[in-house]
Design brief:
- This protein is an alpha/beta fold.
- 42% of the residues lie in helices and 14% in strands.
- α1 packs parallel to α2.
């Protein structure tokens, strides 16, 4: 993403990611489903409390469909592992153009 001109911030776990979103108010969130402490779906739900329109790319190799269904919508794109960088960039561009 950085090589495509985006400013990228990273968090080691879900709680730190939520705090980054609160502090930086990014244009888009990319979050992995499997993380220490909480799932990516948990992060998305928590972030949506304060930023309901924030576009999200949720990355997963395997995830419980019920948890994915609970956070999917027009501003959420699911990206299945493995994927190529171009696929991520297409998802991001699609979300940001809405």
């Amino acid at each position: 993403m950085a090589s495509a001109g985006a400013t990228v911030e990273e968090a080691a776990e879900g709680g730190a990611g939520i705090e980054l979103v609160r502090r930086l108010r990014p244009d888009l969130l990319v979050v992995d489903f499997a993380m220490p402490g909480m799932t990516g779906a948990d992060v998305v739900r928590k972030v949506r409390e304060e930023h309901p329109g924030l576009p999200v790319v949720l990355v997963t190799g395997f995830a419980e469909s019920a948890k994915l269904d609970a956070v999917t919508g027009p501003q959420v794109a699911v990206l299945w592992k493995p994927f190529e960088a171009q696929e991520l960039l297409r998802k991001v561009a699609g979300l940001l153009s809405r």
